[in-house]
Amino acid sequence: MTHRAVYAGSFDPPTHGHMFMIEEGARLFDELIVAIGVNPDKSSTFPLKTRLALLQEVAGHLPNVRITSFSNEFLVRYASREDAGYILRGIRNENDFDYERTMRHVNEDLEDTVATVFLIPPRKLAETSSSFVKSLVGPEGWQEVLKTFVPRRSTRPSSSSTRPEERAG
Questions:
Q1: Residues taking part in catalysis
Q2: Pairing outcome for strands 86-90 and 31-38
Q3: Which of 16, 44, 102, 158 lies 20 to 30 A from 150 at CA?
């Protein structure tokens, strides 16, 4: 029996925290599907195609990782459709725990064959989120600061001095 999991997020952009989750998920499961969940009600800094390319660049070297996306579907139903028995989620703090615990119960109500597995990242990654990273873009020297929080290749689309959302067009 193949142990397949889905790790989903916006990955806007991928961070070191995301990479921790992807690398640990690849180690724990036979196959890890890293899926960008597209929410049409939310605006993204980077277009879907760019986020898929960034994920492929930073995680494509892992042989049991597949990069994809899904839209207009509950994550647990997407996981079930992909024959994944697990959803992989990260918990950085107590707020994440409260939210993820609730979602785990809702997911079980929708698809009781899909379990949720939680990982807690190392302390040095616990405060990093894509929203936090995007807030650093703009001031002089931001490219150097970003290297602390994102894989080197994740900074490539934002290498000019303008904010990424101004270039996304």
A1: 18, 42, 92, 130
A2: unpaired
A3: 102
Which pLDDT score is estimated for 168?
36
**Structural contact between residues 75 and 116, judged by C-beta atoms closer than 8 angstroms:** no
CATH number for 141: 3.40.50.620
Counting the structural domains of the chain, the total is 1
Inter-helix orientation angle 48-59/16-28, to 10°: 60
- For 123, counting Cβ atoms within 10 Å of its Cβ (0-12 exposed, 13-18 middle, 19+ buried), the class is exposed
Q: What is the pLDDT of residues 69-108, one digit of tens each?
A: 999 999 999 999 999 999 999 998 888 899 999 999 999 9
Distant-in-sequence, close-in-space partners of 29: CB < 8 Å, separation ≥ 6: 3, 4, 5, 64, 86, 88
What ranges make up the beta strands (E) of the chain?
Answer: 4-9, 31-38, 65-71, 86-90, 115-119
Structure-model confidence comparison of residues 92 and 123, the more confident one: 92
Segments forming the whole domain that contains residue 38: 4-167
Residue the block writes with tokens 């616990």: 126
